[in-house]
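## retry 2 of 3
previous attempt timed out at serialization; input unchanged, resubmitting
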Amino acid sequence: MPIINNNEVQVIFGTGDISVGIGCKSDKSSSIVQFTEIEPRPIGEEFAFDKNKMEIDDAPVTFIFNKIESLDAVIYQLQRLRDLMANKDNYQWTDGERILEKNPS
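## retry succeeded, writing output
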């Protein structure tokens, strides 16, 4: 879950202890994605929330999207990251920590 390190928040995924929920502001002006800490469970397993309604301030980490283009930008980067993680052999890491395709087409 969130780790505060040098005034940065890091959310570490991979152990099944982070719940990802979606919602919107009451006036529907913005949509949100919230990350909360839960008891570990199989990753991707759906479960019922204990609360009927969660306020924006209830989650330690909340992404608020005012425009669909902002959401599209995040989804695009996550899709790129998924491809990289699934195909690690197709990429190389430079000394400057850049990630490059080995054989770009």
